[in-house]
User: Which sequence fits this backbone?
């Protein structure tokens, strides 16, 4: 694949376009309006013309080898977008969505050529987090999956394949299972928010930074893990609705860093400091992982 189309000029779209351009691909970043393109331009650290082109004309992406959509997270908007897009691109152009949870089958309901449609879920900040999830719809062709898998590898990412269109794909299912149990521990008064985060960062997360859960279990001994699961599984949280801890914050408009308060206080500049600190940590972790892989 040589020509890449990115649709959406927010942080994710701009960052993806920059990554492809820096890797030597002819990259086209599409925005709905000139104003949206200007916002995207301010997020870029590569100049136009260095393999990167900006446009408001969707037709200029018609001969792309792959187009990755990263527009508003709204099912109807995405359905309309891909219906239109699928009619103007080459029959073999791969159509990918960067949705973090919407159904592949639903998004591509009106797409011409459903076999070439799939999810390509990047993680924010996409320039630092290596993982990309590739998600199939019920009719996605294996050859298209492998092409996207190879493309992700070529730009230095760590791709995984989600073979079924399940809610949350792989990462968010695991992430929310962990968060649900963490909130249950706090709500029951077992431990504070700060101590739960400490457990994750310096215990569980410390292990998981190096090995996955199946590898950790192998090192710990499956006999031990089996016997623990015999008595622990029935006591774990299985809440089916949003828990009170997060619901109360949501109802008050406390959404985390972007609103100045969430589980923690990010007011008076603390949010900017937290984001900068997060990016430094992610960069250090990425460098460490890259060194492991060499």
Assistant:
């Amino acid at each position: 694949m040589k020509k890449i189309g990115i649709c959406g000029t927010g942080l994710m779209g701009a960052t993806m376009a920059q990554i492809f351009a820096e890797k030597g691909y002819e990259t086209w970043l599409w925005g709905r309006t000139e104003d949206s393109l200007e916002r995207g331009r301010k997020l870029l650290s590569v100049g136009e013309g260095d393999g990167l082109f900006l446009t408001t004309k969707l037709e200029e992406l018609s001969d792309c080898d792959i187009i990755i959509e990263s527009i508003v997270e709204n099912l109807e908007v995405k359905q309309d977008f891909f219906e239109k897009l699928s009619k103007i691109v080459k029959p073999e152009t791969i159509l990918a969505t960067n949705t973090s949870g919407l159904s592949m089958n639903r998004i591509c309901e009106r797409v011409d050529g459903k076999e070439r449609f799939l999810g390509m879920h990047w993680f924010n900040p996409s320039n630092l987090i290596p993982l990309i999830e590739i998600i199939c719809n019920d009719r996605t062709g294996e050859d298209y999956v492998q092409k996207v898998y190879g493309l992700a590898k070529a730009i230095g990412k760590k791709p995984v394949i989600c073979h079924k269109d399940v809610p949350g794909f792989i990462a968010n299912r695991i992430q929310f299972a962990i968060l649900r149990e963490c909130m249950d521990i706090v709500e029951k008064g077992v431990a504070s928010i700060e101590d739960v985060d400490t457990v994750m960062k310096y215990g569980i997360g410390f292990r998981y930074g190096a090995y996955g859960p199946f590898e950790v279990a192998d090192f710990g001994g499956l006999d031990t893990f089996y016997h623990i699961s015999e008595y622990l599984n029935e006591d774990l949280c299985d809440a089916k609705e949003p828990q009170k801890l997060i619901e109360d914050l949501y109802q008050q408009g406390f959404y985390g860093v972007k609103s100045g308060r969430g589980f923690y206080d990010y007011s008076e500049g603390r949010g900017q400091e937290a984001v900068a600190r997060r990016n430094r940590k992610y960069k250090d972790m990425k460098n460490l992982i890259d060194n492991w892989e060499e």
Summary: The radius of gyration is 21 Å.
